Amino acid sequence: MMKTHKRTLTWLILLLLLAACAGPAAAPTAEEAAATEPPAATEAAAAPEEAMPIMGGECPKTGGTLRAAFQNEWAGLDPHTTSSYSSYQILNNVLEGLTFYDNDLQLIPWLAESWERSEDGRTWTLHLRQGVKFSNGREMTAEDVKWSWERLIDPATGSGNAARVGPPDTVIEVVDDYTVSVTHPEPFGIFPQSIGFDKSSGIMAPESVDEDGNVTIPIGTGPFKITELEGTTRLVLQRNEHYWQEGYPCLDEIIIQPIPDDTVRETALRGGEVDWVLSVAPQNVALLEQDPEIVVARAPQLSYDYIGINLTRAPFDDVRVRQAIAYAIDRQQLCEAGFFGLCVPIQGPTGPGSPWYFDYAPYDRDVEKARQLLAEAGYPDGIELELMPTTQYQETVRAAQVLQQQLAEAGITATINALEWSEWLEKEGNFQYDAYICNWNGLIDADQYYYLQHHTGLIFNFTGYSNPEFDRLVEEGRSISDFEERYKIYEQANKILVDDAPYVYMYNKQEIRAYRPYVKGFTVRPDQANNFWTVWLDQ
Amino acid sequence: MNTRYLIQRLLLTVVVLLGVTFAVFLIIHLVPGDPARVILGVQANEENVAALRERLGLNRPFLVQYGSWLWHALQGDLGRSLITGQAVLPQILQRLPATLQLAAAALFIGMLIGLPAGIVSALRPGSRLDVITSLFSQVGVSIPDFWLGILLVILFSLTLGWLPPSGYTPISVDFGDWLAHLVLPALTAGVISGSIQTRFVRSAMLEVLNEDYIRTARAKGLGERVVILRHGLRNALITIVTILGLQLTALFSAVVVVEVVFAWPGLGRLALDAVLDRDYPLLQGTVLTMAVVLALVNLAVDLIYFFLDPRIEYA
User: Which residues, if any, are the signal sequence (chain A) (predicted)?
Assistant: First the structure.
């Protein structure tokens, strides 16, 4: 019974997703703590003298309603417990952090005007901007910062993003109304970068919590507030009249509804039912670009699609086997088939669009080399391998199908086990796989690429990779601030990592948005955040 | 019909509802996948997952979880969604009307197609008309609903621009808008339902038309119209009502897909999301609601039987 049920379910989901062809999507909001700004300094009071709203200028036109269509329904709006990409896309416009990444991905002061680090490197003191109000009209103070962060790092909250602020024993203290200090058990050099990255560490008013201890509608200091919430089928963001950046936001309101099916969503855009869509199926990009009534905006993602190999299982514990896999694949072809060419092949975690890109690419396709490596490892007749993509991200399933053929030529017999999200997460989290396919998302600093996903024993290290030399390098990398110096360190770390091949990197995708030409002031960001306060309607 | 029968019938319904909720709870717990992991996403580590499971009560034994759900459900509290934290009952009540409207409209369209097509082809089995309707219903039965839905969207929304491709307006807000949004999803589910109905109506009619009393009626010299409508259709209706009841049941599952395609804010979509997220309370709530609705439909079918055919007796 269970089997039939499962099969029907999988079948149904597969059909749905095929129909939907799950757009460019929604990477799994992967993230970790910490981000440094490439050229900017990390520690040592990184804030400029004068704090200013970075989006600057003014709205050419105010008022109006933007009708936006998302691909997925949001899964809860409590910034501390949700991990859903669709939820973050909403929270980005409701909550704000003490620091912020501007459209060029430079770290800038935001709700904090400045910050400094103590001599011993363990305590950060942040000075809040005065006169910032929550959307309910109450002024935000250091107490709210303390409350928000304490709730986030409380293990009972069960937040996957708690590490952005620090471990559970981090001490957060109110110095005065506009000053807060954060003391970490260990030096946390890139704390300002870490809290600028997503909205989990954004400041929420304690009034957001209802009598049962749940947050259904978070109250923040952002340009918009959530006014109508019809389950997960319709949500209205209304301008926050108390917003601290004068003259913003430009829009009166944004009506957000999920339309899961790609064709239907794009039809709604072309027919003028909606003004803006969050995701476009890659196969439809060319067609939409021909439509003069549609603007298709793209930016290279900082996230990568990759194969994670289970190092706790034979024969994948043998580096030669992993290298054989890396040699067996044709990344350009994968990009074409997996994402309709809207991507760039990569051989390490950082892509050519990143300031942390390293020109080290030893794995151009070489089937003979792959066979030879397998033979050296004791598998002259090849090996078997189960690929585990997820139906949640259809491009991973497409990639698996291409991989299957490419690997076969090198004597690796791959089977595909495409799982729905919930089951996939469980297997991935418990090392119950040979090789999974997914993307790692929304990264800015080298630390985010190299530390948490690859360091021995860390929480995002899902492959069981461990190399003491690599660990030493990435630990050193996060302790210093000079870009050039760090670049050299990560260059070495990158080489070790790519040679060890716990992950086989495939490509960077493009982030794609589409909207009507009268939607102005919108920027597609490589970190996938959609910020709407500068958006205005030219109609 | 007597009260004893009614009471028996209602008691049976309660047992069925209990069985259904238990079965669904069991199945969804047996299927791999964990709501705590869905909530935490790829950044979940074992520690976080364990803490969240504890907080959500997911580490309690299965029977305890079911018992607790049942106890609260009996008091009218269907709990809170694990994923969104919103109370389940208001969400369901908000979405139920949309599904009922869609299912009713689809059934209506199905009847508009199925009844005449079935009757006409039964009257002249093997005729060209019969072949055409059979072909139509064969295609209709085989066509996947999401595909038909997308074809209709491409034709009526994209190409012709007559109807909105997705969305929903409550009937109380704007009737015209409500209708415009209803047409395509109802047509999608309705065409498929109609082609199934065609086959059932045809065979029900054929069977009845071969009965002795039809021959008697004809022998009495009654007009063909009276024979077909009063004697034939009246008796075939018993079977047809059963079919319609079953069809409504089937539509409830068909609308899951249709609701997703057309972004129709109904229960089906809610249930699907609940399954994918392993959102146990939400899934239990939607399943219970659907089961209640279907139990009522079955009850109605039984009652209609009684009125259609006084010979039916209930022991």
Answer: 1-27
Look-up of token digits 């997996």: A338
Determine contact: A263 vs chain B, CB below 8 A: yes
DSSP-assigned letter for residue B256: H
Give me the mean pLDDT over the A135-163 stretch: 90
For A429, phi and psi rounded to 5 degrees?
Answer: -70, -20
Residues A439, A522 within the same domain: no
pLDDT band at A96 (very low <50, low <70, confident <90, very high): very high
CB–CB of B43 and A32 under 8 A? yes
Token pair of A227, please? Answer: 């006014």
Q: What tokens appear for B192 in the block?
A: 């498929």
Q: Are strands A503-515 and A435-440 parallel, antiparallel or unpaired?
A: unpaired
The answer to whether residue A84 neighbours chain B at the CB level (below 8 Å) is yes
> Would you say residue A64 has pLDDT above 80?
yes
- For every residue of A388-453, DSSP letters joined together read E-BTTSHHHHHHHHHHHHHHHHTTEEEEE--B-HHHHHHHHHTT--SEEEEEE----SHHHHHTTT
CA distance A67 to A65: 6
A493: Cβ contacts below 8 Å, ≥ 6 apart: A450, A470, A473, A474, A477
Same domain? For A65 and A164 the reply is no
Instruction: Delimit the domains of chain B by residue range.
Output: 3-88, 93-308
B241 touches chain A (CB under 8 A): no
A residues 320-379 closer than 8 Å to B (CB): none
pLDDT mean across residues, chain B: 85
Span B253-269, pLDDT tens digits = 788 889 988 988 888 88
Name chain B contacts of A6, Cβ cutoff 8 Å.
Answer: 31
Q: Is B57 on the interface with A (CB under 8 A)?
A: no
- Shortest alpha-carbon distance between residue B55 and chain A (Å): 7
Identify whether A44 is part of a domain: no
> Is residue A519 over pLDDT 90?
yes
pTM of the model: 0.81
A43 touches chain B (CB under 8 A): no
Query: Residue A422 is nearest to which of B34, B147, B164, comparing CB atoms?
Result: B34
Interface check A56 vs B, CB under 8 A: no
C-alpha closest to that of A148 among A243, A78, A90: A78
Name residue, tokens 């790829």.
B42
* Whole-number pLDDT of residue B310: 61
Q: Distance, in angstroms, between A257 CA and closest chain B CA?
A: 8
Q: Assign A229 to helix, strand or coil.
A: strand
Give the mean pLDDT of A209-233: 89
Determine the average pLDDT of the residues in B155-165: 87
| DSSP-derived secondary structure for B13-30 | HHHHHHHHHHHHHHHHHH
CA-nearest of A402, A408, A465, A399 to A437 is: A399
CATH number for B93-308 (one of 3.40.50.2300, 3.90.1150.10, 2.40.10.120, 1.10.3720.10): it is: 1.10.3720.10
| Residues of chain A contacting B272 with CB distance shorter than 8 Å | 12, 16
Please answer whether residues A77 and A226 qualify as being in contact, where contact means their C-beta atoms are separated by less than 8 angstroms. yes
CA separation for the pair A108, B17 (Å, rounded) = 57
Name which of A2, A74, A159, A263 to mutate to probe chain B: the one with the most chain B Cβ atoms within 10 A of its Cβ. Answer: A263
pLDDT tens profile B212-249: 888 888 888 777 777 777 777 777 887 788 888 888 88
pLDDT over 70 (residue A264): yes
The nearest CA of chain A is from the CA of B115 a distance in Å of 30
- Does the pLDDT at position A262 exceed 80? yes
Q: Are residues A323 and A437 in the same domain?
A: yes
Across the interface, do B153 and A158 touch by the CB < 8 Å criterion?
Answer: no
Query: Contact at 8 Å (CB) between A354 and A536?
Result: no
